[in-house]
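Weekend entry, working from home. Most of the wet-lab plans are on hold until the incubator is repaired, so I used the time to fold the two sequences that have been sitting in the queue since the last round of cloning. Logging both here for the record. First:
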Amino acid sequence: MMAKHLPHLQSSSRQNLPPLESGDRLTRYEFERRYHAMPHLKKAELIEGVVYLPSPLRFEPHAEPHGNLITWLGVYKAMTPGVRMGDNPTVRLDLDNEPQPDAVLLIDATAGGRSRLSKDGYIEGAPELVAEVAASSAAYDLYDKKTVYRRNGVQEYIVWQVLDQKLDWFVLQDEEYILQKPDEAGIIQSKVFPGLWLAVLSLLEGDMATVLTVVQKGLQSPEHKVFIEQLKHTE
């Protein structure tokens, strides 16, 4: 969620700004200016220069899956010093793209991460992992957003298509996204964050006890211990 305060914007100038509307074609500067002038607005995205405003979010198709995704990532973050996790942060990727993904997992800049925090507190550059909760495969998360994340170097991209009961996990290889498949145990292991293990079917079924048991096993793996040491030595 974006902070709703810009010291240089007076209330009178805010009143004169047109509101953000889905389909508007704006520069990133103008997008941010109008977003800051709408304190009631909780989420807006600029994708390839086009404004997207989501509809109100229902509990089962979005809010609950979103919470489960954040829980899984939060457990990993809590046990991995040097890694940071965010819920709905605004991300300044390039001049035409400012998404607000459902979740990001990133390596802190002091530990060698690819993104950094701007002076006004926003993420600039590509987080190592981005996750989105989509209603179905028809959502723009699998089209324009996917292209934007790939082009800007997001290393891993997860899209949970709730109504389709499907989760796609892409890894960036040779500038292309490669779809990862679960192993024989139904688990996908992150390529960028050693120890970040996901029991895919359990997540889709809402079995969070199993999801958390599996990620705990990943956190106890030798690869995770090596990763923590690498992050320490990078600082």
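Second, folded right after the first finished:
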Amino acid sequence: MSILHLISEASLTVQLVMLMLFLASLVSWSIIFSKFMQLRRERRLTAQFEREFWSGGSMQSLYNQWGAETKRASGMSEIFVAGYREYQRLSERGFANNNDLLDAVQRAMRVELSREIDHLESQIPFLATVGSTSPYVGLFGTVWGIMNSFRALGMSTKQATVSSVAPGIAEALIATAMGLFAAIPAVIAYNRFSYHVEKLVGQYEIFMEEFISIVNRQLTIDDD
């Protein structure tokens, strides 16, 4: 009645269900660890960039520093680099209309924001899929295993006892347990990562508005 013995004695369909759930769990844990490290790094670099941005230094030097160091780039710094690059390019060309310049800078930052959101949200939907479907896949394996146990019991000429039914039901219930084992961490990680991604995106959007306001003030000062 050991777990390994029950799995090895299960029907082929139940074994395939268990294998599927096991692989889904492995992939989920791989995504959980990689996404945890990615978001932790992103939060650290975002905080570092904000400190440097609001320290009162030159935006040109900040652009040169963060635009060149790709290994240290964060979502917020990439948005800043995209916006400042567009501002610099249009200013050097002598862009006449300030409103059009601001719109161009904002569009460039919006495009980069979309890229950063896609990057942050990558692989997270897989966790949602595993969390929502794994219990049902495990339940399917359980139902199939119990059905086979009762079919075999009905075809047997021996008297039905608990000892004769228990192994088949136990091996079937393992599929449900594996489904929950795959689903619970995936659901917890999905909710946690979604919260952090939403928080980071909110920080990016606030920074964009503040940067546009700074550029607007700078253009107003230049006109005066």
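Plan for Monday: verify the second prediction. Helices lie at 3-9, 12-53, 59-68, 75-92, 98-121, 124-155, 162-223.
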